Amino acid sequence: GALDQYCGETCDTVNPITFSGTIWPIMQTSCTGCHSGTSPSGGVALANYANVSAAAAKGSLINSLKGNGVTKMPLGSSFSACRIRQFEIWVSNGYLNN
Q1: Can you tell me the distance from the alpha carbon of 96 to that of 44, in angstroms, rounded to the nearest whole number?
Q2: Considering the entire predicted model, what is its pTM?
Q3: Residue 64: exposed, middle, or buried by beta-carbon count in 10 A (0-12, 13-18, 19+)?
Q4: What angle do CA 23, 29, 35 make, to 5 degrees?
Q5: CA within 20 to 30 Å of 42's CA: 56, 69, 74, 97, which one?
Q6: How far is the C-alpha of 32 from the C-alpha of 45, rounded, in Å?
Q7: Are 31 and 46 in contact (CB under 8 A)?
Q8: Each residue of 1-55: pLDDT tens digit?
């Protein structure tokens, strides 16, 4: 049967994915260190909802998480398939500020 194992990450795609409860905490931990301030890395600011939702609307948010035509982010590591799925769900649900 299935093993009850914790792999260092809590990732829930069943309950609602919200910006404030799911997406923003991930962004703060993994993205804003490089993508905020007066000179964000690559000229890509992800310092607030407006920045993140604009990237979601252009498709660049998901493309960067998957490495589709751009450098895969976060630089030097990657998110799990489940974590990327959370972002996809949030984007497909209209990238709401919730």
Answers
A1: 20
A2: 0.88
A3: buried
A4: 90
A5: 97
A6: 8
A7: yes
A8: 444 444 556 788 888 999 999 999 999 999 999 999 999 999 999 999 999 999 9
